[in-house]
Amino acid sequence: MRMLCDIKSLWKSFVVNLAVTAIWYAAEYEQFGTLQWDRWGDNIIGVIYMVIFWWVFHKIDKRGAAT
């Protein structure tokens, strides 16, 4: 059951991270008129968001499984 909880948490964090990335790039395009694909900072922030979302969803799923 624990592995299933981790996979669900990973899947949820992936979907939310994609949504945040879409909003991030839409705002960038609106502001600058072009997308800058070669910036390492965006990649690092994306990974940090993914890990944070995964941790949060894991905690939520773990709490839900305990009750």
Please give a structural write-up.
It contains 2 helices and no strands. It is an all-alpha fold and 67 residues long. It has one domain. Helix 1 runs antiparallel to helix 2. The protein is elongated and about 50 Å long.
Topology, pairings included?
Blueprint: H1 2-32, H2 40-66
TL;DR of this structure?
The protein is mostly helical.
Provide the descriptors you would attach to this structure in a database record:
mainly alpha
* Number of self-contained structural domains: 1
The helix-and-strand class reads: mainly alpha
What does the largest sheet look like?
Answer: none
Radius of gyration: 15 Å
Shape: elongated
What is the strand content?
under 5%
Question: With helices defined by DSSP (H or I, 4 residues minimum), what is the helix count?
Answer: 2
Question: Roughly how much helix do the residues carry, as a percent range?
Answer: over 70%
Terminal CA distance reads: 14 Å
